[in-house]
Predict the 3D structure of the following.
Amino acid sequence: MQDILKKLLEEVKSGKLSIDKAMDKLKSLPYEDIDIAKIDTHRELRTSLPEVIFCQGKTIEQIILIVKKIKANKTGINRIIATRANKEIYKEVKKIAPEVVWYEQARIIASPSKNKNKTGNILVITAGTSDIPVAEEAVVIAELMGNKVNKAYDVGVAGIHRLFSIKDKLFDANVIVAVAGMEGALASIVGGLVDVPVIAVPTSIGYGASFNGLAPLLTMLNCCAPGVSVVNIDNGFGAGYLAGLINKKSK
Amino acid sequence: MQDILKKLLEEVKSGKLSIDKAMDKLKSLPYEDIDIAKIDTHRELRTSLPEVIFCQGKTIEQIILIVKKIKANKTGINRIIATRANKEIYKEVKKIAPEVVWYEQARIIASPSKNKNKTGNILVITAGTSDIPVAEEAVVIAELMGNKVNKAYDVGVAGIHRLFSIKDKLFDANVIVAVAGMEGALASIVGGLVDVPVIAVPTSIGYGASFNGLAPLLTMLNCCAPGVSVVNIDNGFGAGYLAGLINKKSK
Amino acid sequence: MQDILKKLLEEVKSGKLSIDKAMDKLKSLPYEDIDIAKIDTHRELRTSLPEVIFCQGKTIEQIILIVKKIKANKTGINRIIATRANKEIYKEVKKIAPEVVWYEQARIIASPSKNKNKTGNILVITAGTSDIPVAEEAVVIAELMGNKVNKAYDVGVAGIHRLFSIKDKLFDANVIVAVAGMEGALASIVGGLVDVPVIAVPTSIGYGASFNGLAPLLTMLNCCAPGVSVVNIDNGFGAGYLAGLINKKSK
Amino acid sequence: MQDILKKLLEEVKSGKLSIDKAMDKLKSLPYEDIDIAKIDTHRELRTSLPEVIFCQGKTIEQIILIVKKIKANKTGINRIIATRANKEIYKEVKKIAPEVVWYEQARIIASPSKNKNKTGNILVITAGTSDIPVAEEAVVIAELMGNKVNKAYDVGVAGIHRLFSIKDKLFDANVIVAVAGMEGALASIVGGLVDVPVIAVPTSIGYGASFNGLAPLLTMLNCCAPGVSVVNIDNGFGAGYLAGLINKKSK
Amino acid sequence: MQDILKKLLEEVKSGKLSIDKAMDKLKSLPYEDIDIAKIDTHRELRTSLPEVIFCQGKTIEQIILIVKKIKANKTGINRIIATRANKEIYKEVKKIAPEVVWYEQARIIASPSKNKNKTGNILVITAGTSDIPVAEEAVVIAELMGNKVNKAYDVGVAGIHRLFSIKDKLFDANVIVAVAGMEGALASIVGGLVDVPVIAVPTSIGYGASFNGLAPLLTMLNCCAPGVSVVNIDNGFGAGYLAGLINKKSK
Amino acid sequence: MQDILKKLLEEVKSGKLSIDKAMDKLKSLPYEDIDIAKIDTHRELRTSLPEVIFCQGKTIEQIILIVKKIKANKTGINRIIATRANKEIYKEVKKIAPEVVWYEQARIIASPSKNKNKTGNILVITAGTSDIPVAEEAVVIAELMGNKVNKAYDVGVAGIHRLFSIKDKLFDANVIVAVAGMEGALASIVGGLVDVPVIAVPTSIGYGASFNGLAPLLTMLNCCAPGVSVVNIDNGFGAGYLAGLINKKSK
Amino acid sequence: MQDILKKLLEEVKSGKLSIDKAMDKLKSLPYEDIDIAKIDTHRELRTSLPEVIFCQGKTIEQIILIVKKIKANKTGINRIIATRANKEIYKEVKKIAPEVVWYEQARIIASPSKNKNKTGNILVITAGTSDIPVAEEAVVIAELMGNKVNKAYDVGVAGIHRLFSIKDKLFDANVIVAVAGMEGALASIVGGLVDVPVIAVPTSIGYGASFNGLAPLLTMLNCCAPGVSVVNIDNGFGAGYLAGLINKKSK
Amino acid sequence: MQDILKKLLEEVKSGKLSIDKAMDKLKSLPYEDIDIAKIDTHRELRTSLPEVIFCQGKTIEQIILIVKKIKANKTGINRIIATRANKEIYKEVKKIAPEVVWYEQARIIASPSKNKNKTGNILVITAGTSDIPVAEEAVVIAELMGNKVNKAYDVGVAGIHRLFSIKDKLFDANVIVAVAGMEGALASIVGGLVDVPVIAVPTSIGYGASFNGLAPLLTMLNCCAPGVSVVNIDNGFGAGYLAGLINKKSK
């Protein structure tokens, strides 16, 4: 945005741009306003991902309105990605954006990525079978950004040999996403084994004193192994995106 | 009430009022007792708003009983305002108070305001699209009190330029209501930009470590920017009412 | 800041300002950078209060550095206000800013206000004797902004007649700051009696299940009476500042 | 039980009772064992209330089994009282205990009390209309114990005059049950006005930072007014029973 | 206060009292205002206890000021009771009120009770030795009100036979105060054995997951045995006062 | 595993095993990988229990896949145990594993134990009737491991004589599982009576300040009686398994 | 106690014992009452440990009083064990019980165990160096009970190879005590490796989101590996005692 | 470790290594055992950092013992890094490791890095002046690993222009560490501006409803901007290390 501002000032100086228009540009540039939402239509240029629609808490009407606006965008940037989406939403979106694909486990609706050359090496692992949906959200997001993703599920610490059997995968990754509910100890063990960034995702899987994910969240935050950081409970999207950022920049 | 008490004492002294009647008056004056509720029939005289029916937790039968009593009030003060009302309640109330209007997003049933001259300038903003219902509750309440209200939705801090594009609105307002879930940082930013009171409304929008609104609540309470105060999670009504109080008294 | 930006663009256009200088100005304008802190030297122009030094958590060395920079400011805006300050800090500051006054109960160090014409009417009340330091912080801040402040201490709800004896003060105020620890019910009662904004300040006074102020904080947030908003536990500064903002704008 | 033990020892000494039988008696005396429950069939002799069936968490089959056992009790003590009971349970119980009455608001099923002489004076009050079901649970239990009960609902502190209009009732009671959700300040005010025991019942009525009744619970526990004690959230039964105990013993 | 109000109205009617004086009386009657505190000088008439000074959180200067005012009271009601008082406070108070006694364990300073005829029967028990200070606070307060108090300390449930050895005391009491930290199970057991009110006092004695008394507080609130109510953590004063109220009214 | 590693190294040395095959063995030995889960097929050899399927949070498809894999296991170890299973799951599993039995209260599906010689003596007790499902989970698991289990339900502390009537059972057990919701005091009492390990299981039975089992959890953790340890809220499985381990090793 | 009761009844029957004396015996038997404490003088007969003095929260005077009483016990059972004891307490106790030893790290004062034949095999491990004091409390208690104890400290999961290097110790133990602060994952890993009971002890070692041990407590409670149970935060005593109970009964 | 294992197996096969020695090697390889701690002497080979001594909770004796062992290490890897170290510790360490430097603000003792070629670009920013110590811990750790670090302190959101003035630094960084207490909104704003990983560090700076850092922790976890992950409260070390990992691998 620094550059945009500098260029703007230069155009004003050279007379190419009137002051009023400069003011307007500053306000309207990076998004479209549809009253219920301001859509960041340029986001994909800056990052590898377009603005993502977080469906939870939005009405179907609102989602459709946003999808329509993105589809109508004249810049040619009109890829759809919607998370926390159920089948009902998918059916409605499909009607106006027939290209979209439905990732059921990940609960993601997305225009297929045109980028076929996936690069780097992200590893997404889960402690249990029930953690898979959160992990899949991370996997799909990272792949949509053009990253190459490996997975290994149900390798939790209650059977430590399961984790060791995937050592090759662990030591080959540029960055690891560790998804775990219950006591969430997976991230600690992995963090002690590898020397790459580990993104820990606590899940709400568990019962009783898990307090909907508080237990693994605290476990991961208190992790003795350095190199581990944490995202919100069940936030597969955030973990996948961050892993993508790190992987893309990795040598 | 100070005045009422003084006048009462004077009437007793002058003999206009017997002691027993004075005692009775003190008890019965400002409300009507319908056993399940004591309705403050004089409230609109003192404030710009009649007593508001908070529907959540009440049975339809109780709500209808209260509405009937208000409608039957001989003082001429029989405007209906009911919050947290769903469609089913609306249909029942409509039968006995056909003048009422249904504000769907705000979940408010209300007799239309006769006051057409809305004054002042309240700005209601939200961080996201999902926060709109809470914001609308604030908007409708403030408008029913006779305040002029501006709005700007989906201007959360994840895309700070969205917020800056509404700078004119921000700097023109007498008081701002900032509605945000997730991490609730909106109030902090706005509080740092403006020099008018900011009423922060945390919402239960979010998941995981938002703990049903605890996260934005704490964020807003710890706001470094002075001039910010906080109401209960999802309490659009309280924010709208308080904004109305401040706006009405503003020069 | 909108105006500053517009003026800048105009000066660039007219050639008065080179692009590089405009860029610099945008960066350096509203504060002075002393490495450990960025001091907002223009704040008093925009609000009625200069940038306030929050002493808690800062070393004496850091505080003195900031005070020196403010004193050296060539704009003539060099009023000192420091909160959460103990006697030791006061003695050190006094050496380099001999004009400052020490408000012991309020724990505030301040250059005396030149404004002798205090206006409006703020009422600050406390539930108990132990809540007075927090209340005094609010009182001193509001007065330093040029507001007229009334006080009434130890009027908590355990003896409701104490509260009623200050009815005149309650009904005359433009805005009320209600400071209470323990169960914090004071704000609810006052909020039900008056029709002006009530700013509730929970304090950490109490023991056991008060959990360092959590109990009065929740009480105040759940207040049934509308017109009440809440600031952080023990945040007398924030309450005083907000009350000042509202009072100053009141008709 | 002291007496029972002494009598037992005496009967053993005098030879009336063999040692083995004494052992058996000690084990089986005060209840009947039906495998899923041990029913205290003698409870009504010791207190004014038979063993009460807490329905929440029990299957209908379990409840019916317990009712049948009580009905079959040969001691003649076979009065039924069941709390937290819905209509479905009532219908099933009615089939095998046709004498029972259904207190809908209080969610209580009970054999009618034969005691027509209700004595003493308990006052049950609520802050709002939505708190009534919890209050009714207290009222019905206290009445089933033979206590005289007054009530006054919707007298919360947001309109303090409502509370004052019931002063006669407040000052006449031997013991007061104060039921309140939201911020729960009612108990504090009442505790400051009267000199009889106040039993505070927080309710889960509220939203947001009420955290399902945590807010009024903490308010009531931190009550500055002495003479107030607290029972569990929504525990109308406990409050009614305790009020009954106190009232029955009152001069 | 009802009576005071009625009498006032009558005096106004009969001309004995002018309206302005009536207004003044209403305000000033039941307390003396010393700026930092409003002292309820008539309290002892209404209850068996004068206004009690809660020392925690007050400066010695404030405490001395309040004591002086009480001593100077012309009504003859000038008994001193101060709780949460350490030795330093005691020494200072002793200088101006030489009649006071120092209850070290209970941390209470008090003018000796003139009432020598202690009546009724309150039992105060503790689970452990460390809970004794809180229990002593209850004992001293109840005795100062003129109640007869029995005690039994260190009878916690880890050795259930200890509790049973005090059965006589348990069954003779009109009301029982059960003081316990750690897991706080004492109140549950006692509540299941007796048929008189049990006032449960959680203490902050414990460590780790006691969370400063949260554990026994929750235990006591969830007590299955009816007849048990709870006061704040470490609130021996409140428990003693409430037990006194109940005992005094007991047949 | 120490032994397996040593044997492996020896086979490699003697040439029986190639290095690559040794590497493979280390990875694949103790489980089968079916992508969504890694099944520990050898678990029953090491412990008395096969790998248990925790159904909660898994889809029926996932459960069926796991069951199929276990059934197909060529080692002959293909006993099925699935916990937190509802009827729908049972019906589906029955189709492919017709030998399984449905323990409705315990919510367990299991191949019947071939071991008819149950040994030792575990006692499982509950405070109330509603705690039975959690207790039954413990009972069934312990029995499936070949342990002899006694039970005594509804012996909570509100009627302490109920507990004493089962003294014989209490003193005969090698290990006791104490299951309780509400205030959870049962474990404390039992822990004070016996000299064998007590495994305390808090349940989510209760309401209000039980906070879904937090209250009994804290009670049990703060238990003054030594010899008591705690498992997760509602974790009947864990308690039954641990009791089994201890009982099996008992002299 | 069943036996004692039976014998008592027999003596009464045979006339050996009068009823009054039987009553007295029932009350006074198992402890000595010194007003501030009831000392269980027979405890060592029933368990392998005498009554233990928990010093925290007791005054030195109280501790000395208890020690004196134990020393004066005529039964010959006068072994001293005091936990959470600092040096000051040790010096005072030493004066009247010169045989006692001071275990500095474990903070235990104890008469030396006469039992030289330590049996069985308990393993006590810690995650970090800072957890050692809690572990030592467990070690000393278990040894005082006559158990053989192994230790391995600083084997936390951040360096998993450290844990594996003590595999022999892990697989040889009858019962393992796992002491860990921070994220507390040690218990989960160990629980997944061994088939003996694991007693998990969370410690308050850590900072920030460890919340004084809440994080490892929740981790351990949510442990996926079966066979793990948990004691209170920092409760080395409880863990050592329980491990002793299990070890002593192990085949 | 995969490689080490493979090589070991090969050496065993070829006869270079006996089985017993292989077993020993596996156990003793990567650390030295000094009873109170297991020191990972090879860590620096694997990462850019030697094993770090976390001083908090350790005695000076323990720290010195560990330092001595590292100094005595014959591999030549004997660089000292100790965090959370006060001056007293520094003085003692200096005596036996005279090369160490004392980073006062960061509370770190370290052997100076020999690596003079710092590479990449990490930016460390703080919201306030009081957050600097935590930030400095991150800065020093990252620099000791050989990273180039920029800093910008006191750029919190209460004065958003402060943040914008460091835009160049923000857009040039490979990874950003955002340190903030109070409401912690800094990470959200920065996360919305940049497209590189942001590591958010909540601090315990604040008061009242900050609950020792819980408020900024929750804010950061709920951050709407993707690309942000969180470490423990005040965990400057972890953030610095993770930033170092990411920066070192960045193109």
Summary: Chains F and C do not touch (no CB pair under 8 Å).
